[in-house]
Amino acid sequence: MTSKARTQAAKPRDPRKDRVIVSQESVHDTYQIRGKLKEPTVCPDCGAVFHKGHWAWGERPTDAHEHRCPACSRIRDQYPAGSITISGPSLAAHRKELLGQARNEETAQRADHALARIMAVEDRPDQVTITTTDLHLPHRIGEAIRRAHGGELKVNTDAQSFVRVTWTG
Fold it and tell me: Domain tally for the chain?
């Protein structure tokens, strides 16, 4: 066998032919606005202003168009993007403090992210469930509570359209 024949025989196969192509399915979010809104646009419910491609808090421009923001649409439809469930022995002793931390975290996030809001708080004797209009807010609330009180934090996402966070302490 010649050296050229050995070189050709030892040549690896084209790696591009061996790879598996996995298609990424697009996540359908009913509340994501299709296309571009005319700027400036104001939400008639909360007053958030759509400017430079995102919703933010600001003064209402005089010539603004009106369109309901995704957070207000979720609140109206009672269709949350996420939830956090708080339970465990610490809940009875620190209920007011835990709920206060959740509200404080919402206030901090809402200052920069107009669509991050608490929708509802379902307060039962053994657990509290907080629903939100945003995917990231439940995790941030859970992290704030875990930093302050310890406990166990679990985060479950459902096809990137809903996040379920549980804190037990």
Answer: 2
What are residue 75's phi and psi, to 5 degrees? -65, -45
Report yes or no: 118 and 130 within 8 Å, Cβ to Cβ: yes
Cis peptide preceding 70, ω within 30 of 0? no
Task: Write the CA distances from 131 to 28, 51, 148, integer angstroms.
Answer: 20, 27, 21
d(CA 76, CA 17): 50
91 lies in which domain range? Answer: 76-168
Do 62 and 80 share a domain, yes or no? no
Cβ atoms of residues 12 and 40 within 8 Å: no
**Domain at 109, CATH number:** 3.30.70
Candidates 17, 151, 5, 153; CA nearest to 89 is 151
DSSP state of 165: E
Whether 9 maps to a domain, the answer reads no
Tell me: the pLDDT tens digits for 43-85?
A: 999 999 998 888 999 999 989 999 999 999 999 999 999 999 9
Does residue 57 share a domain with residue 130?
Answer: no
Are 97 and 103 in contact by the 8 Å Cβ rule? The answer is no
